[in-house]
Design a protein that fits this description.
The complex is a heterodimer.
Chain A (H helix, E strand, L loop, with lengths): L1 H8 L2 E6 L5 E3 L5 H6 L6 H4 L1 H16 L4 E2 L3 E4 L5 E11 L2 E8 L2 H60 L5 H31 L8 E4 H18 L3 E6 L6 E4 L1 H18 L4 E8 L8 E8 L21 H7 L4 H12 L4 E6 L3 E9 L1 E2 L7 E2 L2 E2 L12 E2 L4 E5 L3 H10 L6 E5 L2 H13 L6 E5 L7 H15 L6 E5 L4 H10 L3 E4 L4 H11 L7 E2 L7 E4 L7 H20 L3 H14 L6 H15 L3 H17 L1 E4 L2
Parallel strand pairs in A: 8-10, 18-19, 18-20, 20-21, 21-22, 24-25
Antiparallel strand pairs in A: 1-2, 1-6, 3-5, 4-5, 5-6, 7-9, 9-14, 10-11, 11-13, 12-13, 15-16, 17-23
Chain B lengths: L1 E9 L5 H10 L12 E10 L2 E10 L18 E7 L4 H16 L5 E6 L11 H9 L4 E3 L8 H19 L6
Classes of the chains: A alpha/beta, B alpha/beta.
């Protein structure tokens, strides 16, 4: 009796197999069995697994094997709960028993646990792949979008530049300037976004080149100079005497950080001064550890907003966005660049007094810190900005390959007054053919401008072809300047491999293209400085016929005043003269005079006598050669 | 009535049990339950005018170190090979199971189910691989136990191809 109950208490359902294949319960059957199975008569019917093992069990009983165990299986109970079962066939003293037993829940839990972990691991792997794909997709999207945006923007900014160089009324000039300014603003924004995404995907690597700290700061100051002057702000640069100025580092990134900080400073400052100061980093250990401070006397930032200013798309107050514009990306990018340069960036600010943005950065130091002569003048001397001295490559034979009609038109317009001849190819194949026949006809091109993405044959292949022709004929390599709207460095690397001499990124400003031409114009065809729009005829607007000649006469008279002031080192007088000319030239139909006026004014402000002299010479030459055209 | 045994084979977590629950009980549960050993369900269906009782052997999913017990495939008339579209590794498991079945048990009618079609957006198994398998002669259905998409069709298709194969070889196990 006790044995019967013991079997049930152990959750074992035990049957004796009788001759003829019937199963008779031994003792009391446990509770789960009646719930699951019903009657022993349909044992194999109810437990298909049992049916599956029965042939094996029959053999075991025949042989009198003490115990043969089935695989376990899962049964659903009447209430949907699951049980793991196992069957054992056993022979004891010639009697044949079948035991069904429920396996402990711990077994299932253990297995479930293991499988859950394996599933989670697979999910993590999957999510990782998804995330990597998303990052790649974002990168590709940005590269493509930047290309798609830059290409038309190239035409927009370029055409505005070309338009600005034609005679315009003051009103038209204003419109063109707005268009130029916004075009450039949009380009900056695209570049910022691209920069940020490149930093985020770890694609930014700092350059390690020789730089002149003073030059970097001057160039940064030049960028904001116009805006600062317009607001009447003074700009100051202070480099502590113990700071080494010949450094090794990434000039472009450093300048970008300073420009970003200065740009903010000028934006939020209504009067007073902006200053860039450099000292050794008090917490640094190496001589190249420097601390920069860009300070202003502007609105200041409330204390509670200070921590957020380095976050993306954040300005101290969303209303500042409306008032001052900007995306707030500049500081985020600056922070990233500073960290790449091994430093940190922070801000101190008092509302109503001003802000100082500090950052530290680590540079290598060049061994020789003595001032060297570069291009005949000391390197430390303030460089003349590119806009102030527009170079001109003259008389070049240029081959231009670009499939976009707008771009071809733009480049041809840029080269209009250079005396260069431009042959055009609409794809790489045509370009290669033109190049070869020019080479064969002993009329080789001086320079090739090569779009990268073109139908039929792209710029990479065409350039490889060109390099092959040159090799075969023993001709010296011709400069091939690639024009691409792809801003990623990979394009540049691939292009240099294909044989590009230099890669220019669209949108290309006129001055950038001309500078590149000067850089690469073959020796023996020297680059000339511009004879300012010399042979151009200026059309006098209707109604202006009576005043224009008089206006020009007055300017001619002023040339000697400039020269006198120059001799007296009276830069204030030069500034007054040039400022007036800057303000009036365009209005009378002479944008060239406005431009020259601006250039002279800038040079005078820097007290750069040499530059003022060059500009005044240009002015004199222009006034001599300009021809007036009247409407019928 | 004609009685046919079919098995569901595949990696763990591909949804074998859920496919059976959807087909037999029209149920779906988000909760994951690993199957221990084998779980057997029955379903009577009509194929070509005659009734067939399907014995559906839902076998524990294959894990690293725990291969499916192919011996349990004995006497089966066909099987559903199941993979999870969101985990490309489960396709490799399916391929490997298929090869072992071929070499250890022999050719049997089977249908390849790529399950979790409701998550198609995050599938990892490339369409090109599926077309390659189709070119190799696999019949492929994309199913979802969650939505029921093509689940019934899967069981029916396997059942009728089994009956066809059975008629051709005329080795029936009627009872």
């Amino acid at each position: 009796m006790a044995l019967r109950d013991l079997l049930a208490a152990l959750d074992l359902a035990v049957f004796e197999r009788l001759p003829g294949g019937l199963f008779e319960p031994v003792g009391r059957l446990p509770g789960w069995f009646s719930v699951t199975a019903g009657f022993p008569a349909d044992l194999a019917e109810h437990f298909p697994m049992l049916g599956f093992f029965m042939p094996e069990f029959e053999r075991a009983w025949e042989e009198g094997a003490p115990a043969v165990t089935s695989d376990m299986w899962t049964e659903n109970g009447a209430n949907g709960e699951e049980r793991q079962l196992e069957a054992v066939a056993s022979s004891v003293h010639g009697r044949r028993f079948l035991v069904l037993k429920v396996l402990p829940p711990a077994l299932r839990a253990f297995r479930q646990h293991g499988v859950n972990i394996a599933l989670i691991e697979e999910e993590v792997r999957r999510l990782k792949i998804v995330a990597e794909r998303a990052t790649q997709a974002k990168s590709d999207f940005l590269a493509t979008m930047s290309h798609e945006i830059r290409t038309p923007l190239n035409a927009v900014i370029g055409m505005a530049d070309v338009l600005a160089a034609t005679p315009l009324t003051p009103e038209q000039q204003k419109y063109v300037e707005i268009s130029q300014r916004n075009g450039v603003g949009l380009l900056t924004l695209i570049n910022d976004i691209l920069d940020l995404s490149k930093i985020e995907s770890g694609k930014v690597e700092l350059e390690s080149a020789a730089i002149d700290l003073r030059d970097v700061i001057d160039r940064a100051l030049e960028v904001v100079e116009g805006r600062a002057t317009a607001k009447g702000l003074t700009l100051r640069k202070t480099i502590a005497p113990e700071v080494p100025v010949y450094l090794i580092g990434d000039a472009n990134r450093l300048r970008q950080v300073i420009v970003n900080l200065l740009g903010n400073a000028v934006k939020f400052t209504e009067n007073g001064r902006l200053e860039v100061a450099v000292t050794p980093d008090p917490e640094g250990s190496a001589p190249g550890d420097l601390r920069f401070a860009v300070s202003d006397t502007g609105a200041g930032i409330p204390e509670e907003k200070l921590s957020a200013v380095f976050e993306s798309f954040t300005q101290a107050d969303s209303s500042t966005t409306r008032k001052y514009g900007g995306t707030g990306l500049g500081l985020t990018i600056s922070k990233q660049f500073v960290e790449l340069m091994g430093g940190r960036i922070w801000v101190e600010s008092t509302v109503g007094v001003g802000s100082t943005f500090w950052f530290t950065a680590r540079f290598g130091v060049q061994e020789d810190q003595s001032d060297r002569l570069i291009n005949g003048h000391p390197r430390g001397e303030t460089q003349v900005s590119p806009a102030a001295r527009e170079p001109l490559a003259s008389g070049l034979r240029i081959l231009l390959a670009d499939d976009s009609e707008d771009n071809r038109f733009l480049i041809v317009a840029y080269l209009k007054n250079t005396g260069s001849s431009v042959d055009i190819a609409e794809n790489g194949e045509t370009a290669a053919l033109l190049f070869r026949s020019a080479l064969a006809g002993s009329q080789p091109y001086d320079l090739v401008l090569m779009d990268v993405e073109m139908p039929v044959m792209d710029g990479y292949s065409a350039t490889r072809e060109i390099r092959r022709f040159e090799n075969e004929s023993g001709a010296p390599p011709t400069p091939v300047l690639a024009l691409t709207a792809h801003a990623f460095a990979e394009t540049a690397a691939r292009g240099l491999e294909a044989g590009f001499t230099e890669v220019l990124t669209k949108p290309i400003r006129r001055v950038t293209l001309l500078e590149a031409l000067v850089r690469h114009a073959p020796a023996g065809r020297p680059a000339l400085f511009r004879e300012p729009v010399a042979h151009e005829k200026v059309r006098v607007e209707e109604g202006m016929e009576d005043v224009v000649p008089g206006y020009l006469d007055k300017r001619r008279a002023e040339v000697s005043a400039y020269r006198q002031a120059l001799a007296d080192h009276n830069f204030a007088a030069i500034r007054a003269l040039s400022h007036k000319m800057k303000g009036t030239g365009g209005g009378y139909g002479f944008p060239a005079l406005t431009e020259l006026g601006a250039q002279i004014e800038r040079a005078a402000k820097r007290e750069d006598a040499r530059d003022v002299r060059v500009r005044v010479d240009e002015l004199a030459q222009y006034l001599q050669s300009v021809e007036l055209e009247y409407s019928k | 009535m004609l009685k046919k045994k079919i098995c569901l084979l595949g990696a763990f977590g591909v949804g074998k049990t859920s496919l059976v629950a959807r087909y037999v009980h029209s149920q779906y549960s988000e909760k994951y339950h690993t199957t221990v050993g084998v779980k057997i369900d029955k379903k009577v269906l009509a194929v070509g005018g005659s009734e067939v009782a399907l014995m559906i052997w839902d076998m524990a999913g294959e894990e690293d170190g725990a291969p499916v017990k192919l011996s349990q495939l004995r006497e089966a008339s066909g099987y559903l090979l199941v993979a999870d579209g969101t985990r490309s590794k489960t396709l490799e498991t399916a391929r490997s199971i298929r090869e072992r079945v071929e070499s250890e048990i022999g050719r049997q009618p089977f249908l390849f189910l790529v399950n979790k079609a409701d998550l198609r957006d995050s599938w990892q198994i490339p369409a090109s691989e599926l077309s390659q398998l189709a070119a190799d002669g696999w019949t492929i259905l994309e199913t979802s136990a969650r939505t029921g998409e093509r689940v019934e069709e899967a069981f029916l298709t396997l059942a009728s191809s089994m009956l066809k194969a059975g008629n051709e070889s005329s080795s029936e196990e009627d009872d």
